[in-house]
Amino acid sequence: MKINKKIVLSFDLDNTLINNRKGIVNSFNYALKKFNFPKMEKITILKMIGTPLEEMFASVSNLNPSILAKAFREYYGTEGIYQSKLLPGVKKKLLELKEYNFSLGIITSKKQEMAEKIVKYLKIYSFFDYILGETEDLKNLGKLDPKLKEILLNNYPNEKFIIIGDHPKDVMLSNNLDCPFIGVLTGNHSAHQLKEYKDDDIIIINSIKELTIDKIKSLI
What we know:
Number of domains: 2
CATH class of the largest domain: Alpha Beta
CATH architecture of the largest domain: 3-Layer(aba) Sandwich
Structural class: alpha/beta
Strand order of the largest sheet: 5-4-1-6-7-8
Oligomer: single chain
Helix content: 40-55%
Largest sheet: 6 strands, parallel
Mean pLDDT: 91
CATH topology of the largest domain: Rossmann fold
Number of helices: 10
Shape: globular
């Protein structure tokens, strides 16, 4: 039986739908090397995934982070995005969800253009009704930016949102939207860390493969 309510399932990208750790690590170290900084350990970079790029660089260097971010994108846009892959079971799950009356979207800390390139490369672009990230018109659009809430509620005024992600900022976005949250443990944060930000209307699963219609229904 299909769900008749208007539900928008809004996914994070990195570590929720895709594994792009190799591309991010290589791009990050490319930028550091370009400006004669020492390479960083993979684990250190991975722990920062989910944080806006300029914030990542500001935490490790006194150089203008926008300069390092530009260098990161030089590599990422030509090589890094092609080092990404879907997490197991993602495409099958998206197909299953689209067979119901769900709208699907992506909200990412990435530049929107870059996120679109990745999902096109991974052949899942057609599943999504929207992809939201930073654009020229919306610079530094973060998940907790009031403009993001305004965009979502203006475009989907009658729908109920469910945010799905691996990062505390995804949980906080669900709080801003006053909507349920489904946490996945394919990132760098534990169930305990995600639950610290939300008392109810939250479910934790190991991966997108475990996302079921019954779990979604329990939050509606």
